[in-house]
């Protein structure tokens, strides 16, 4: 299946103005996707009420199950489709089959995702590639087989990417889907930001509250804290000391799939219920922090039903933040240039 798409798919090379052709191509791709033999005979367009809060989780591994459980626990979805595309039946998915959850459907058919408000990507290729570039390329190849069809089935939804490396996989999803950029988001530093705010406010009990501090940039070692507005009662020095102390506490927290699942569910809640809440998520960073290449980095944004509605620009000028983001942008862009999309 993947090989077939490698031959078929220069979709992202179409100009976005050529929408009719893009839709035709996406329809064709969906048609030849596994599990969908004839898109018209299935009549998927008419079977699904379009107003329900339907969510699709793609991938039934650790993170896919964690997202499913967290979204179910929050009661956000009227219907949740877990697309388990693996050959074998992994423990988690099998157990969900046995101990079924209300409103959760497990499927291998991509068309089951039709009319989702959010499609969450948690798949990860298990290729035995040697170099980092090969590992990323095998994830890209897998996305080539999935994103165009899933984008076709949920043309008005938001694509939320959790697969790693999240900045690159979000860029790849944007290119392969031909979606408007505001509706393609990576989970980026959302969990780190929420944790940092909690640490500053509830653990360090610092005044003023940590609501104005964000973790931004590249997920992992190169992420960086930044303040949204100048805190009048704090000198720049004590602000830096406070965020450094909070970042130290954040680093030892580690990441478990269930904590990422909880933060994904919070993001989904903001989208589905049009909460207009601020999240630090991976978005197209071109034009911010003097970045002029097409790379995705985490920046604080207002998130609602159409994805990103506004990017929050910090009024605090910090050279170290700009340098870190530019350095991340340069290395991510370098790697993207070597990928075969
Ligand atoms: N687990 C976490 O805490 C966590 C946190 C943040 C990000 N992530 C990222 O999310 C992704 C998934 O992580 P995980 O822990 O769930 O991994 P996992 O190995 O448990 O699950 C990967 C899933 O991808 C599916 N898959 C593999 N190859 C496929 C293919 N060719 N077509 C369709 N599906 C395929 C597998 O069947 C499996 O369901 C990874 O990129 C990971 O880095 C995970």
From TrEMBL:
CDD domains: LDH_1. Keywords: NAD, Oxidoreductase. Residues 54-186 form the Lactate/malate dehydrogenase N-terminal domain. Pfam families: Ldh_1_C, Ldh_1_N. One of its GO terms (biological process) is lactate metabolic process. Residues 190-330 form the Lactate/malate dehydrogenase C-terminal domain. It comes from the Eukaryota. NAD(+) binds at residues 59-64, 84, 139. One of its GO terms (molecular function) is L-lactate dehydrogenase (NAD+) activity. Belongs to the LDH/MDH superfamily. This is Ubiquitin-conjugating enzyme E2 variant 3. It comes from Gulo gulo (Wolverine).
């Amino acid at each position: 299946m993947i090989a077939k798409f490698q031959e078929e798919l220069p979709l992202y090379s179409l100009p976005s103005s050529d929408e009719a052709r893009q839709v035709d191509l996406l329809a064709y791709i969906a048609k030849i996707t596994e599990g969908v033999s004839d898109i018209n005979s299935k009549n998927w367009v008419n079977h699904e009420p379009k107003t329900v809060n339907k969510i699709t989780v793609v991938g039934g591994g650790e993170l896919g199950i964690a997202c499913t459980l967290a979204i179910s626990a929050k009661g956000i979805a009227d219907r949740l489709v877990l697309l388990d595309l693996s050959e074998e039946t992994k423990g988690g998915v099998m157990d969900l089959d046995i101990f079924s959850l209300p409103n959760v459907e497990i499927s291998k058919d991509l068309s089951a995702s039709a009319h989702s408000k959010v499609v969450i990507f948690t798949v990860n290729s298990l290729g035995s590639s040697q170099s980092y570039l090969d590992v990323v390329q095998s994830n890209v190849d897998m996305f080539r087989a999935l994103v165009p069809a899933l984008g076709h089935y949920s043309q008005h939804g938001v694509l939320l990417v959790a697969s790693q490396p999240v900045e690159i996989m979000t860029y790849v999803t944007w290119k392969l889907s031909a979606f408007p950029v505001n509706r393609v988001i990576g989970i980026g530093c959302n969990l780190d930001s929420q944790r940092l705010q909690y640490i500053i406010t509830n653990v360090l009990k610092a005044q003023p509250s940590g609501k104005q501090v964000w973790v931004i940039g590249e997920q992992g070692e190169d992420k960086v804290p930044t303040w949204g507005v100048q805190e009048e009662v704090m000198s720049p020095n004590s602000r830096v000391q406070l965020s450094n102390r909070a970042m130290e506490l954040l680093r030892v927290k580690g990441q478990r799939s269930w904590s990422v699942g909880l933060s994904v569910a919070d993001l989904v809640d903001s989208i589905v219920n049009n909460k207009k809440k601020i999240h630090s998520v991976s978005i197209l960073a071109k034009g911010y922090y003097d970045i002029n290449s097409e790379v995705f980095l985490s920046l604080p944004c207002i998130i609602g039903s159409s994805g990103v509605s506004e990017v929050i620009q910090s009024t605090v000028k910090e050279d170290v933040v700009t340098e870190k983001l530019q350095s991340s942008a340069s290395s991510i862009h370098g790697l993207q240039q070597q990928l075969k999309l």
